[in-house]
From TrEMBL:
Basic and acidic residues compositional bias, start-end: 16-27
Keyword RNA-binding: yes
CDD domains reported for this sequence: YjgA-like
GO MF, one annotated term: rRNA binding
Residues making up the signal peptide according to the UniProt record: none
Location of region: Disordered: 1-27
Any GO BP annotation: ribosome biogenesis
This protein's name: Ribosome-associated protein
Lineage: Bacteria, Pseudomonadati, Pseudomonadota, Gammaproteobacteria, Moraxellales
UniProt organism field: Acinetobacter pseudolwoffii
GO cellular component labels: cytosol
Entry keyword annotation includes DNA repair: no
UniProt keyword terms in alphabetical order: Cytoplasm, Ribosome biogenesis, RNA-binding, rRNA-binding
Length: 177
């Protein structure tokens, strides 16, 4: 069996740019499962009005009927996987009223502070919200910083900031429980 040469080119690294590692993907599924648990707390009427796939709505309604801890855990894992196909911003908009406008404004200030100050703000945010994965938060910060440094179009910068805000909002929702 032929061995692959050890010399990696710049193209090899460029192809991996922006791609999440397996660990990051697993942690994202866990975050989504935690968000799914919060979505399951909504009333049946609110769940039916969610602008998501029918399979997800059925899964959220089914989990309310389960009493076994293991069955609920598996169902929330499934919900987390289904949530990966949905728009994060839409899902978070349904959970944001639980936080309130004051909390949303506070999280936006955190995002602005993280973009401005970098690591000191990231460290403080990590201490404040226990569900934070420092590495993931730092990756979001670096993407925003890279876009600003490369003078990317305004839409790209805003998209990166929105991803950072969505992550901060997810962490805050999960940490509050």
């Amino acid at each position: 069996m032929a061995r692959r040469p050890n010399s990696l080119t710049e193209e090899d690294f460029d192809s991996l740019e922006g791609r999440a590692s397996k660990t990051e993907q697993k942690k994202a599924v866990q975050r989504m499962a935690a968000l799914g648990a919060q979505l399951a707390e909504l009333s049946a009427k609110q769940i039916k009005n969610l602008p998501v796939e029918e399979r997800l709505i059925e899964a959220l309604l089914d989990v309310q009927e389960f009493t076994s801890h293991e069955a609920r855990r598996r169902q929330f894992s499934r919900i987390g996987k289904l949530l990966r196909n949905e728009n994060e911003t839409v899902i978070l908009s349904y959970l944001t009223p639980k936080q309130g406008l004051k909390k949303t404004a506070q999280l936006q200030r955190w995002v602005d502070r993280i973009v401005k100050d970098g690591d000191p703000a990231i460290n403080e945010f990590t201490k404040t919200y226990n569900a934070t994965e420092r590495h993931t938060l730092r990756q979001h910060y670096l993407r925003v910083h890279r876009d600003l440094k490369n003078q990317a179009p305004e839409a790209e910068v805003n998209a990166s900031k929105l991803k950072l805000f969505n992550y901060v909002q997810q962490v805050a929702l999960i940490s509050d429980n």
